[in-house]
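Tip: read the tokens left to right.
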């Protein structure tokens, strides 16, 4: 594929130490889908789903060992629309690298989760399944500054979220300044919400969300009440799946050849305006996500870029601004041999000569070794 790359993109790869041979593996990568409501299905239901998907796809379909709920379809040219399981809403398209970023957060039922760059919402839907609990429902707050992409996210939620729809709220807002805290305890209890409204009539009038310039697009009734939205609670888990140049997403890069034109890959994807602006944006998103995270909580920073400027250097800058006692990069449980490991190979992160060992636990999914799309993932404990 890279024979077609414009000179600007080749220069970008060179400056960012990205070996163009990464793009050679595109043809051989499998296609991945995620089983919706995986935890609620029995083993035999899952086997049936795998078998049906295999018949429709006409090639090998297997569960991804170690990453619960993901199926690997051997032939990447299989179209989702040809799968009955997709048409019925039993599976959604999602690369396993994105699944690993979500699993790296170790969400527990009942957690309040913030997804600061959420659209179109593949990770948000999985987060909602992970924190949903029937006795103490958690919550997922999705934020994205593109109203167009938030609309797509809403459609995805309506189609696939099922009961977890009740714990999701979406904001069309800038993640670098977003400031709405996690819902208060008992946000889901109508009596608590009613009692609060009766006792706090002035607070109710003052706390008009539109005044915060953060527009709530989609939230179930109780989650959109002033009671739920005016709390001071911080989040248990924060995902900063930051805007990036997408150079690690081989499917995305291929679209330049198939739909958008290779010339745009030079100007649009990695023009100098963008490459200068993006790491600044990423750092600001990371800082704001950190501000909204509870002490003891976990933040995952991820991008689908392979560029050091958007990954190790953003993380390094962040760690330089916070002491070791404040922020600690932890190993990602799925890659931890003591926990069995998920069997997906990762490359060590790039470590600047001058830096200590702080970055060693972050991971690079490089398509040449991981057999997935490219992704950088760092798990940071507060
Ligand atoms: C890599 S995509 C996120 C993918 C998403 N997490 C998913 O799994 O579907 C990055 C997103 O960041 C959003 N974005 C860019 N700048 C932003 C900002 N300042 N605040 C919030 N979102 C932003 C983009 O609109 C885009 O939807």
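Filled-in amino acids:
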């Amino acid at each position: 594929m890279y024979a077609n790359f414009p000179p600007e993109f080749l220069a970008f790869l060179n400056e960012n130490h990205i070996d163009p041979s990464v793009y050679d593996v595109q043809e051989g990568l499998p296609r991945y889908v995620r089983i919706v409501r995986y935890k609620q299905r029995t083993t035999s239901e899952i086997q049936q789903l795998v078998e049906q998907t295999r018949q429709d796809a006409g090639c090998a379909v297997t569960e991804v060992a170690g990453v619960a709920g993901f199926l690997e379809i051997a032939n990447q040219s299989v179209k989702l629309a040809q799968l009955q399981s997709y048409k019925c809403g039993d599976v959604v398209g999602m690369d396993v690298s994105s699944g690993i970023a979500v699993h790296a957060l170790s969400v527990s039922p009942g957690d309040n989760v913030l997804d600061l760059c959420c659209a179109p919402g593949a990770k948000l839907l999985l987060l909602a399944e992970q924190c949903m609990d029937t006795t103490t429902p958690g919550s997922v707050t999705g934020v994205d500054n593109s109203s167009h992409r938030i609309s797509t996210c809403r459609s995805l939620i309506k189609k696939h979220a099922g009961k977890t729809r009740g714990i999701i709220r979406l904001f069309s807002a800038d993640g670098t300044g977003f400031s709405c805290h996690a819902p208060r305890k008992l946000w889901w209890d109508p009596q608590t919400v009613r009692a609060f409204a009766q006792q706090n009539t002035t607070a109710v009038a003052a706390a008009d969300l539109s005044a915060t310039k953060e527009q709530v697009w989609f939230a179930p009734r109780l989650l959109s009440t002033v009671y739920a939205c005016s709390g001071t609670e911080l989040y248990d888990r924060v995902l900063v799946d930051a805007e990036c140049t997408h150079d690690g997403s081989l499917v995305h890069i291929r679209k330049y050849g198939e739909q958008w034109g290779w010339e745009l890959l030079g100007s649009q994807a990695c023009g100098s305006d963008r490459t200068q602006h993006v790491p600044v944006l990423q750092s600001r998103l990371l800082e704001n996500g950190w501000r909204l995270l509870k002490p003891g909580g976990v933040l995952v920073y991820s991008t689908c870029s392979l560029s050091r400027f958007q990954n190790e250097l953003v993380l390094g800058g962040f760690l330089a601004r916070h002491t070791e006692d404040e922020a600690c990069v932890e190993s990602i449980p799925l890659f931890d041999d003591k926990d069995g490991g998920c069997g997906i190979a990762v490359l060590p992160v790039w470590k600047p000569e001058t830096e200590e060992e702080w970055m060693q636990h972050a991971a690079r999914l490089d398509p040449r070794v991981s057999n997935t799309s490219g992704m950088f993932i760092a798990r940071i404990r507060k």
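Residues 98, 117-123, 143-146, 149, 174-176, 241, 243, 281 surround S-adenosylmethionine (CB under 6 Å). The CA atoms of residues 28 and 76 lie 8 Å apart.
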